[in-house]
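We close this part of the discussion by returning to an individual protein. The encoding preserves chain order, so positions in sequence and tokens coincide. The sequence in question and its structure tokens are set out directly beneath this paragraph:

===
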Amino acid sequence: MASEAFRHILATTDLPPITLRDLRHVAATLTHGGGGDLHAVKETLRHSTIVLTSDTYTSLLPELDREIAEKAAHLAPRARPAAPTADPGASAHASLTQEPGNGEASEPTEVDSDAS
């Protein structure tokens, strides 16, 4: 019934030929392209699993995929500049290997090999 009504509407307008299934794909693509996540697309189309949605709609908009990848890259931490040290030849990670400051000597710790 819905298909017949849709075909009748198409026949009486100047719209390009399109099917109801095509409209589902358009809706999913626009939802995803507009920022909707795959769960929103899955719910809109009433897919049984998100795998079906993912397999069908994740590669339709390469520019969206690129934009998402760039946003993710901006979230990844970058190397921090080395903190200035008194010794210009010292490593940026010297604080992890040097003795504690304030004149305190580090105490070696003993491991009891019999403790299990």
Q: What stands out?
A: The first helix runs from residue 2 to 11. The helical segments are 2-11, 20-33, 38-45, 50-57, 62-75.
